[in-house]
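To: structure subgroup
Subject: Chain for Friday's discussion

All,

I'm putting the inputs and outputs inline so they're searchable in the archive.
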Amino acid sequence: MAANGEKAAGGEEQEVDFAKIPIKEAFNLLNSSPAGLTENEAIKRIEEFGPNKLPETSVNPLLRFLGYLWNPLSWAMEVAAILAIILLDYADFALIVGLLLLNATISFVEESNADKAIKALAGALAPKCKVFRDRKLKTMDAEHIVPGDILVVRLGDIVPADIKILGDEDEEEEEHPMQIDQAALTGESLPAKKFTGDVAFSGSTVKQGERHAVVYATGVNTFFGRAAALIGATNNVANIQKVMTKIGAICLVTIGIWVVIELGVQFGAYRHSCYTGEEECPTLTNLLVIIVGGIPIAMPTVLSVTLALGAYQLAKHGAIVARMSAVEEMAGMDILCSDKTGTLTLNKLSIDLAASHPMGGVDVHTLVKYAALSADISAEEAIDLVLHNTYPDKDNLWRGYKRLKFVPFNPVDKYTMAVIQDEQTGQVFRLLKGAPQVVLKRAHNFAEIHEPVEKKIIDYANRGYRALGFGMAEGPGSTDAPGTRWEFLGLLPLFDPPRHDTAVT
């Protein structure tokens, strides 16, 4: 496909991975250019691909209301109402129909109000984006963009569609990547680096950088849209509905058995006759008594009122209950599994200095200073930034020091190393930071200190911290250069602080 399921020249649909193709090829497939689209072309494409939003399913209100009358207990009550009217028992007929309508009305009104609130909230939160149309930069609702549009995405923006980041792929100068927070989609705790030619998905957030990007998928064809479609395709029945169905089935079976017995006795044994009209058919009267007595006729009403009161209490705390059954599901929940990053926490790394563990003859202040010197903030890595920003005198940190070399982190070695020169004394030293076990193993006194350090690491883990180890060695050279004597400086605990409303939630 070229975009949103476009067919290739051969007439067959074929998937195109926009993350792997060059920018020029992407423009060719999308029939676009760095200048963007015209308004006329955008109108044609929005007719072809549809608006950039997930499809909304609307149900006829009458059918929705009648749906609340379609369950085993309601069936039994409806049969009882029919028998009551046949017997001209208007009082029972009115009572049964009234209860049926009351049950349905409570659920219908509550869920209709929830739908209205959700739609109003979605309208208020409708994202905007900056897009080039007719070679002019315009701000418009995100639902109006189409494949081939050129967007400007910058710090704080929510990516409105699946995009491919533009730039000069042949440029040899070092590129500063964008930082895209994909926690809502992937659960990653740290922003992902996005370079020229990389893709970013709808729903992610720009944490750093500003670039032009071309839209290649919108609406249900985005990464987020396909995931939502898979979730929407499932047909989950609420637990309370399962319980009510079981109760209703048991009641119907019980009623059926007694109806058979009643008919057998009345027409088989006593050979009673039966005519329409009031008190003209004792058998029908008995059947009405069996049906009404065989179902908990007030239970649906009590249940609907109880759930409505629960929804009202949740609404007072700012929660929108989309389905009445959700109240019961929450009440019966034993364990809540929740995404942590950005949901229960602020998605912002911090250091708990009070829990830091300096060693090797240094204090907390010196440990934090060496930690800041070991950080390379030019790449804007989250851990390096928090180490640098935690040092109180960060603005003057590099006035007396010079970085001669920096070895970036890689998942195999699990550490970074910086070669630093003290400009006042000319002394050169190396700073190592990384996984605490990796740094600890290089310490010259590993045998003496490894047990208490490992206990501290476990203690951090039990408290929800992630430990970062630091080491220092004199002189230049590589990590394992001959004569290197690493001194373990200590541990700093990293953590993502909880949101202010997490405890209340």
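Points worth raising on Friday:
The two ends are 44 Å apart (CA to CA).
Residues 5-12 have pLDDT under 50 and may be disordered.

D.
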